[in-house]
Design a protein that fits this description.
Layout: H1 3-18, H2 25-39, E1 47-53, E2 58-65, E3 71-78, E4 85-86, H3 88-105, H4 108-112, H5 121-129, E5 136-143, E6 146-147, E7 157-159, E8 162-169, H6 171-179, E9 188-190, H7 191-195, E10 199-203, E11 212-219, H8 220-230, H9 248-259, H10 264-267, E12 271-275, E13 277-283, E14 286-293, E15 296-299, H11 301-314, E16 322-329, H12 335-345, H13 362-373, E17 389-390, H14 396-402, H15 406-415, E18 421-422, H16 424-434, H17 438-441, H18 445-462, H19 469-489, H20 499-517, E19 520-521, H21 523-529, H22 534-552, H23 561-564, H24 568-575, H25 583-586, E20 589-590, H26 592-636, H27 641-651, H28 660-675, H29 682-685
């Protein structure tokens, strides 16, 4: 796909979402790109503010402050209805608008003359009154233009003792990422040109090893610079997000950095990292790392963030802080097999639970399989049945298209519409909203996903059969509810910002109303129609208007509405709202016992599906694979006599055929073998 065609499709999505009036185009564009920045791990969350004062040369469209390290991100947009070139002069002009906004905010007279209802008011007030909590400022310029080749980068500056850095996200950058197989921006580190030094290392592999490993020592200042530049993108393969300074380990790291920096190397377990490619050179008789592609810290996220946060918040001297690093070079095609194992077996500093590995959980795989197999009924006015495409791993949608010809791509898009593509964080948002956790959803995509992971892991361990076709269809119905409401909020006369919070609180409130009535919504009816009835949407908008009033009526000590929405007290206030349901909506409600019976029947069907899938899996592996496990067991003696007998049947495929029950057991045997060390042989056998 050319950039012109990509731009056309991109803008059509904005026009469709905005629907009426060009004044909505830029806010929709801003929200779309901010969502993208969250997905790309550039920011963790954001708040829209749409502030513009041309006479004063001020503009700001969104913001986010990382409470852990104090970095304030200001997002300013440059939007046009045509594909223009984003020049150096425009970049300077736009960046100065956000810069002036920040500078004016440091003066108390700015917020004191603003209306408290202004979306930017909480930010301006916080910048002024909590200026000491800001460690540095990052200004991100977003534009639907194409950046001029003459723009290399915008140099960082210092303003009133604040370090200000700049970044630009244009349509070409987004196009480049979307067109890549990984579906994310490549991290390419040139240590000498970026940081002024290469990294001495020791090779820890032989020429016959499939994977290369290296050991080296990383200066704390260099690790901090890496994290400052690439932020959470360095931790995307990490099994957990940073836990802040709450546990003893993290407090200990902070105290060591501040009080005994020379002992950090001795006390800390170091980092475990991976990269796709490495470039080493010989320098003064030693091997040094000069370049790395897609560096990922898969274990040691707490160490990384602790060093960075202690530098930012306490201006700690990192000159005596050093960290040992074990680096393994893992090609992209092996990431899903190898990285989880590296994470699992690496020496951990805090207990890792099952939810930490949720991205590789059976739930994930099953939901993906269901999304590829189940056809959604054609919506009104259309003949084509479609899929709701679930991205178990980032970039799957684009990767699937890249393999096809132009004609095949069009056919693929007809069957898998872009607007019906769901990500992991989308799924978490839809599910947790319906489960009456809007304050958790409001915490941001990653924290909300963490809660979702805990819930799904617990439910899977209790009974995996509940994750079946019915569960998938009901989940998509919840997605339709969420998406339809989200699309209409900005068009309401009462709307004045905080759309994301309003939507999740509205869905949660509606679900709570049904619970109080002792009724359930007929979600399967929504699935069958792939749309909402006029009366149901009207009811949701009615609830949304009341939610809007409540979340903006904050307690006296709270001025930041976005922060208020993250608290359980806000949800308790919304629970108190009285809403009358339209009679037509009442008629869509069904007895919960009927739903329970549907779930029971669906679980029974899933048992059958599990057996069929197990048989398919066993056959696809071939007898040669199962023979490998059998041979491995002859030297390890891990399997029981009964397990060995079943493996012998599978090893004789296709002469002997395992039963459905035996195939289910074979999956457990394989898992047991892998846990005991057989996994290293998998790439050779599949």
């Amino acid at each position: 796909m050319s950039i012109e065609l990509f731009y056309s499709d991109f803008m059509q999505e904005i026009y469709t979402e905005a629907e009426v009036g060009s004044k909505f185009n830029e806010p929709v564009f801003t929200e779309k790109i901010c969502d993208y920045l969250v997905e790309q791990a550039v920011i963790e969350n954001y708040t829209l503010c749409s502030y513009k004062k041309d006479s004063l040369g001020l503009k700001l469209d969104a913001w986010y402050q990382n409470e852990e390290n104090g970095v304030l991100t200001l997002i300013v947009s440059h939007y046009k209805d045509t594909l223009d070139t984003f020049t150096t002069s425009i970049a300077t002009q736009i960046s100065k608008r956000a810069l002036r906004f920040f500078e004016r905010s440091l003066d108390s007279s700015f917020y004191q003359t603003m209306e408290e209802s202004d979306l930017a008011y909480p930010l301006v007030r916080d910048i002024c009154l909590r200026a000491s909590s800001i460690s540095s400022v990052k200004i991100i310029i977003i534009t639907n233009g194409e950046i001029s080749k003459s723009i290399k980068n915008l140099e960082s500056i210092t303003l009133q003792n604040y370090q200000i850095s700049f970044d630009i996200w244009d349509i070409e950058r987004i196009y480049r990422i979307n067109s890549s197989k990984a579906g994310k921006e490549v991290i390419e580190i040139n240590f000498m040109s970026e940081f002024g030094e290469n990294l001495p290392c020791l090779k820890a592999f032989s020429q016959t090893d499939k994977y290369q490993s290296y050991l080296f020592v990383l200066p704390g200042s260099l690790l901090s610079q890496l994290y400052d530049k690439y932020t959470e993108r360095l931790l995307e393969q990490n099994v957990r997000t940073f836990l802040q300074f709450k546990g003893k380990v993290n407090k200990g790291m902070r105290n060591t950095i501040v009080n005994e920096p020379n002992m950090f190397f001795a006390f800390n377990n170091g980092l475990t990292a991976t990269a796709e490619e490495i470039t080493t050179i010989e320098e003064h008789g030693r091997t040094v790392i000069s370049k790395l592609k897609n560096l990922q810290i898969v274990n040691g996220g707490q160490t990384t963030a602790s060093i960075y946060n202690t530098l930012k918040k306490e201006k700690a001297d990192l000159s005596q802080v050093f960290i040992q690093v074990k680096l393994t070079i893992v090609p992209p095609e092996s990431v899903e097999i190898i990285v989880p194992k590296i994470s699992e077996f690496a020496n951990t500093q805090n207990k890792v639970n099952a939810a930490d590995f949720f991205s590789n959980s059976p739930f994930h795989w099953r939901f993906e399989e269901l999304s590829r197999r189940i056809w959604a009924p054609s919506a009104e006015g259309r003949l084509q049945e479609t899929h709701w495409f679930y991205e178990r791993a980032r970039g799957q949608y684009m990767t699937a298209k890249l393999k096809l010809t132009n004609a095949e791509q069009k056919k693929f898009e007809n069957k898998n519409p872009k607007q019906q593509m769901l990500t992991k964080t989308d799924l978490a948002k839809f599910y947790n909203s319906w489960e009456k956790m809007p304050h958790i959803v409001s915490l941001g995509a990653q924290k909300n996903f963490g809660k979702f992971a805990d819930l799904m892991t617990e439910k899977w361990d209790k009974d995996e059969k509940q994750f079946n076709e019915l569960f998938f269809k009901e989940t998509i119905a919840k997605a339709i509810l969420f998406k339809n409401l989200d699309k209409k909020i900005m068009k309401q006369s009462w709307y004045g910002g905080y759309k994301a919070n309003i939507v999740t609180y509205t869905i949660s409130k509606f679900s709570h109303i049904l619970d109080e009535k002792g009724k359930s919504l007929d979600l399967i009816s929504i699935w069958k129609h792939q749309s909402l009835s006029e009366y149901l949407l009207e009811t949701l908008l009615n609830i949304a208007a009341k939610v809007n009033d409540v979340i903006k009526t904050t307690p006296a000590h709270v001025t930041n509405i976005g922060e208020w929405c993250k608290k359980s007290e806000c949800w308790e206030s919304v629970i108190e709202i009285y809403v009358e349901l339209h009679p037509s909506v009442e008629s869509m409600l069904i007895d919960p016992n009927e739903v329970k019976q549907q779930h029971k029947e669906a679980a029974t069907v899933q048992v059958i599906d599990n057996g069929i899938e197990a048989q398919k899996y066993v056959f696809e592996k071939t007898g040669k694979y199962w023979k490998k496990i059998l041979d491995w067991n002859n030297s390890t003696y891990v399997l029981s006599h009964k397990e060995k007998q079943i493996i012998e049947v599978a090893a004789a495929l296709p002469v002997k055929i395992p039963t459905e029950k035996q195939c289910l057991t074979l999956l457990k045997i394989e898992k047991k073998a892998i846990e005991e060390g057989f996994y290293m042989a998998i790439p050779e056998c599949v």
